[in-house]
TrEMBL record:
Stored Pfam families: DUF429 (PF04250)
Family matches, as InterPro entries: DUF429
Protein's name in the database: DUF429 domain-containing protein
Organism annotation: Bradyrhizobium lablabi
């Protein structure tokens, strides 16, 4: 994470995902969740600092981001990599943009791509997710895409040596 929420890897991921660049969050900044409990006050401060506001969606997963951030910083010697599921789906789809994951067409395509990649139990996982887990279908599909990248990533943005954040963590997204 950077102090202002702008990272080259996010910009490159957005470029790859065009015309659906909004699928990449901008603005995760440690200070947001360290200093504020209220998204409106955090956004006021971001604007005062000349930075972009944080979306409500990002705000609501911020505490989890901070948990992961703390774990990664405490385990920096391990090879822990950031993955973006939409970049994985783009790769699985031969570089062709995908429809929204919230649409029936988008969900069906992602499901077919994951099955083609070898995830045979996905129908069962989707059925089990409906039973009290709180996970939505697109969450399960995204988790499966991330698992594929963990099994064998095929690329990253930026390529080569990544830039490092203030804590020495790589700012690079794998797919």
């Amino acid at each position: 994470m950077t102090g202002d929420g702008e990272r080259a890897c996010d910009l490159l991921a957005r470029e790859k995902l065009r015309p659906h660049a909004s699928r990449v969050f901008t603005g995760a900044r440690r200070w947001l969740w360290q200093e504020f409990c209220d998204p409106d006050k955090a956004n006021e401060e971001a604007l005062r600092r000349g930075q972009t506001r944080v979306s409500r969606q990002l705000w609501h997963i911020g505490r989890k981001i901070m948990e992961v951030d703390a774990f990664v910083r405490a385990n920096a010697r391990h090879d822990i990599r950031e993955v973006h599921p939409e970049l994985v789906f783009l790769r699985l789809n031969g570089g062709k943009p995908l429809p929204s994951k919230k649409s029936e067409e988008g969900e069906d395509l992602r499901l077919r791509l994951l099955k083609r990649a070898g995830l045979r139990e996905i129908d069962r996982w989707l059925a089990e997710a409906r039973i009290g887990t709180g996970a939505k279908r697109d969450d399960v599909l995204d988790a499966c895409a991330v698992a594929l990248a963990a099994r064998g990533p095929h690329g990253c943005v930026p390529e080569g040596a990544p830039l490092l954040d203030a804590h020495g963590l790589p700012m690079q997204i794998w797919f």
